[in-house]
Amino acid sequence: MTCFRHKKGVFKRQKGFARRRVNFVMLLVSALLITAIVASTALRASPPTSAAVTPLNVPTLIDSKTQNGPIVIDIKEGEHAFYPGVKSKTSGYNGGYLGPTIKMYKGESTDISFTNHLDEPTNIHGHGLHVVGKIDGGPQNKILPGETWNVTIPVSQQASTNWYHPHLKGSTAKQVHSGLAGFYLIEDGHSLSLGLPNTYGVDDIPLVIQDRNFVDGKMTPYPAGNMPEDLREDTLVVNGTINPYTLVPKSFVRLRLLNGSNARSYEFYLEGEQPFYKIATEGGLLPSPVEITTLKMAPGERNDIVVDMSVIENQKLLARFLPKSYNGFNAALIPFSESQPVLELRADGSLEALASELPTQLNTITPYLEKDVEVERVFELGDMSINGQQMNMKVINHESKLGQLEKWTIDSGRHPFHMHGTSFLILSMNGNPPAPEDQGWKDTIYPNGSAEILLKFEYEAPEQWPYMYHCHILEHEDMGMMGQFTVK
Ligand SMILES: [Cu+2]
């Protein structure tokens, strides 16, 4: 009402011509908006429905429980057929593209031996792992060509979906793009007792979602010369397959989503906007499943979702490509936002239905209290820098204390923010308390604006092996949108 009166007052002061011009502009804006909404509604009503013909590639599982001796990972160049019969030059861990899924268990240690067969240095960051700086795999931790990095990962954190990828300053974007990425899955006694879908590749399926360009079926290599500001490509690639399908039992099916793209964010949804459940954020299970119909994810983020396949023959997961910044917009109403298929789930009655119920209680999360905060820090992301500073390997940007509760304010704008060494809880997103589906442990956040997070570090990161905080658009990270800190 107040607003209406104010507008009326403004109009009264207009001269005739100015008022007509304002009316014309308003008409034009309205027409454009209606056109945009109609266009986007049309797009929403007709997502790509071409039947998937390629079986989903599921990364090989290496279960640390059944492993004798260290897990051996060879980092090397290779070839991969994204389209059947057409090979592209790629890199991979123990294969042509991506790497095996390594399953680890809370309370146990996992030995891994990474050998670099590339002709350039690389390294391995355990994204999401709660480990000391020395084995976190930040830019200080180089594996030179021909060298082997033997690492023992003591797993102390709860069940969660994490990943490993290169993290050298200046070559992360190119190396991840070539295919270097894999899953670290952590389970614990509690997660295994819940009856959640957990038969790997059958009803518990990891999906790394990326975008790539292709010419005649061949993947376009990472641009040589000057690095692009952020690489967004045309075709959605899921576990190295395009428009794939997979057979699943007629029961609940868990999809562990990882946005492994260099720069692109997506909004995931099921065909027909069917509901699904989000059961986990990056650092662990949510307190209980949250029913949602859309899920936005920025590069580096993981979310576990569950789809009910008990009463449906066929279900298609789709991804809407989000623009660089969608602040304030409902992504579904953004005109001309493109959707591409992620995965077609086909119910197969001959597969044993393993998870016929979804537990209502999943996890206990004891929230941090703002009144217990001992230190506050602010991170402003912008202009390829954080707080006006670019990454300098010789500069430690701040020092955190072991076990101290910190509140970080992330003014991230259009940049997804990630920090190493621990998981945080969201205190606020753009001034609002987090939605139920965001009230879980995380290590990457994309508020499209500003967020406040609460966090504690439980492991040491000295000057030689500091932790990083950075933008997870890999080009931005490579260009210096990163800082480092110690924990003592
Ligand atoms: Cu960025």
From TrEMBL:
Keyword tags: Metal-binding, Oxidoreductase
Plastocyanin-like domain: residues covered: 76-189, 379-488
SUPFAM superfamilies from the UniProt entry: Cupredoxins (SSF49503)
InterPro entries referenced in this protein's UniProt entry, alphabetically: Cu-oxidase-like_N, Cu-oxidase_C, Cu-oxidase_fam, Cu_oxidase_Cu_BS, Cupredoxin
Example GO molecular function: copper ion binding
Signal peptide extent: none
Superkingdom of the source species: Bacteria
Name under which the protein is recorded: Bilirubin oxidase
Organism encoding this protein: Enterovibrio norvegicus
Organism lineage string: Bacteria, Pseudomonadati, Pseudomonadota, Gammaproteobacteria, Vibrionales
